[in-house]
Specification:
Length: 93
């Protein structure tokens, strides 16, 4: 997982789409992302597309500093229910 391929581009996350209303317990899941692409365009990704792309080695980074490893998007399972969602890696502060 931690293979360093310096030439690999990353997608900068512009916005995160969540399903705020879904759960009685008040938590939410990520439904998709909008990103700034390495070629300068923009893409909207569904949750499934993001997880698939990450498994293929793509990187999704929140914010403008790709060297901040804490800002990488990672797939996870919701801690409160069995649904898949995304989490932003724990920031080191
Ligand atoms: Zn949940």
């Amino acid at each position: 997982m931690a293979s360093t391929r310096d030439s690999l581009p990353w997608y900068v996350v512009l916005s995160i789409e969540k399903d705020h209303a879904a759960e009685p317990s008040g938590h939410s899941h990520v439904l998709g992302l909008a990103t700034r692409d390495p070629d300068g365009g923009e893409t909207h990704w569904t949750l499934v597309q993001v997880i698939s792309a990450i498994r293929d080695g793509e990187r999704f980074v929140v914010g403008e500093d790709p060297d901040d490893q804490g800002a990488a998007i990672e797939p996870t399972v919701c801690p409160q229910c069995p649904r898949a969602t995304l989490v932003v890696g724990t920031p080191t502060r």
